[in-house]
Design goal:
heterodimer; A: mainly alpha; Arc Repressor Mutant, subunit A; 2 domains; 9 helices; 0% strand; globular; B: mainly alpha; Serine Threonine Protein Phosphatase 5, Tetratricopeptide repeat; 12 helices; 66% helix; elongated; Sigma-70 family RNA polymerase sigma factor (chain A); sigma factor (chain A)
């Protein structure tokens, strides 16, 4: 008896996952998040962590994995499984945190230190680039709702001008102009934030 | 004089967007890259725009992640969207074959336990569970446990599902997720028994997943031939990928 699979998560191939991450496909990203988080949470709570730390560590790892797929550091051809990669990054980040000076309880560290798995993680961006990125993201938060919406729909959700036009009930020409003006505003705000420290 | 250098023109912005959104054909891409190479000021403008583009994307991703995380915060939300399932007849023949395979496989070991453990870690993650959304459901208890499962509270999910299993012994969805939770906490023996019940349900939608997890469990024990036989029975993409990592003979 053939049935359609009810489990949308497991029916996805690695290729579909890679393409979905590249295009910020919401269903793919949500599946990845919901699929891997419970395991990371379980691991962190078992190793001296608390709920908020599990969330923060996982989200850091999620962004790192997403970036590595986008930058081509994590490719579908090299046989890596995105879910497994994400889990390993999160796990390693937590183990690094346990080893760090921020975490002082060394007895527990001894128990988990050997568990670190070798995967190539993201290279740290130079600090100047990081500052710039932080400033830009802060600026994005400070933009008006309308601007945020247009930029998000175009750059993140990858919607066409026509789609945005029908979603926001404005003409395509207005979408085009708003997108330009909002990006200009984002840049200006970022420069202000950066120069004011 | 302006405090900061002037922002790029609309046309230039749209040119940069076309490149970053992969909308150029190969020839146009090459021409664009050559231009960047030859013009330091254009290159600087492009790099700045690329960062702004990435910042919008990353900030939006953060917003989405917080939205995804609500699934785990609305711990008390109960429910389900999946179709009501019904029990299938058990195919004892298949179950017996797999049990035999599991026991025979136990005598095979792969030289290099670390490698199999590493592969296990790379390929294993618990089934993400079924979507749970607000609404009415006839399977309240099942989905209450599913919320716990998705929250990573496997012990609580197991406890709840075990109670349901008393009256629904052959329900493949129940057996599958109970086994998934048991595997997540490292109770492989119980998990194997559950996955075997799933594949005994001829035509279960979880059959491929069950074979996959049985194969993974065999791999974890270092029983390579057994793992291969089980993985070959699964049509999951991950099973095929994993098979590629295992020795041919």
């Amino acid at each position: 008896m053939n049935q359609t699979k009810t489990n949308q998560f497991l029916a996805r191939t690695q290729e579909e996952t890679f393409v979905g991450v590249l295009q910020n496909n919401d269903l793919v990203l949500r599946s990845l998040y919901e699929g891997v988080y419970p395991k990371v949470r379980h691991f962190i709570l078992q190793n001296n962590g608390v709920e908020d730390q599990a969330k923060d560590m996982f989200q850091e790892a999620f962004v790192a994995t997403w970036k590595n797929v986008k930058d081509g550091k994590l490719k579908k051809d090299n046989g890596l499984n995105v879910e497994a990669y994400l889990f390993t990054i999160a796990k390693n980040k937590w183990l690094d945190y346990l080893r760090s000076s921020r975490y002082k309880k060394t007895t527990r560290v001894d128990k988990v230190i050997h568990l670190r798995l070798d995967v190539e993680e993201e290279e740290s961006e130079p600090s100047q680039d990081q500052d710039e990125m932080v400033a830009m993201q802060r600026a994005f938060k400070q933009l008006g709702e309308k601007c945020k919406m247009v930029l998000k729909l175009f750059y993140y959700e990858r919607k066409s001008m026509d789609e945005i036009s029908s979603e926001l009930q404005i003409t395509s020409a207005s979408v085009r102009n708003q997108k330009y003006r909002c990006m200009e505003k984002l840049r200006l705000l970022s420069l202000e934030i950066k120069s004011n420290g | 004089m302006d405090k900061y250098p002037k922002y790029i023109s609309q046309e230039k912005q749209e040119l940069f967007e076309r490149y970053l959104l992969n909308e150029m054909d190969k020839a146009e891409q090459l021409a664009f890259l050559a231009k960047l190479d030859a013009d330091a000021s254009l290159n600087a403008e492009f790099n700045e725009f690329k960062k702004l583009f990435s910042a919008v994307e990353e900030a939006s991703l953060h917003e989405r992640m917080n939205e995804y995380h609500k699934t785990f915060e609305t711990y008390s939300s109960k429910e389900a969207t999946s179709k009501k399932r019904f029990p299938f007849r058990i195919n004892y023949g298949i179950a017996a074959s797999v049990i035999l395979l599991l026991s025979l496989g136990g005598i095979w070991y792969f030289n290099g336990g670390n490698k199999t453990e590493k592969l296990f870690d790379e390929f294993y993650s618990p089934d993400p569970g079924l979507p749970t959304v607000m609404g009415d459901t006839n399977n309240y208890d099942f989905y209450e446990a599913m919320v716990a499962y998705k929250h990573g509270d496997y012990d609580q999910a197991i406890e709840k599902w075990k109670k349901l299993l008393v009256t629904k012994q052959q329900n493949d969805t129940l057996n599958y997720f109970l086994a998934s939770a048991q595997m997540a906490i490292g109770d492989e023996k119980a998990a194997n028994a559950g996955f075997l019940k799933v594949i005994a349900n001829k035509g279960s939608v979880f059959e491929d997943e069950a074979y996959f997890y049985l194969g993974l469990e065999a791999l974890k024990r270092g029983a390579i031939p057994e793992a291969k036989s089980l993985l070959e029975l699964s049509k999951k993409e991950a099973s095929k990928e994993l098979l590629n990592h295992l020795p041919k003979k």
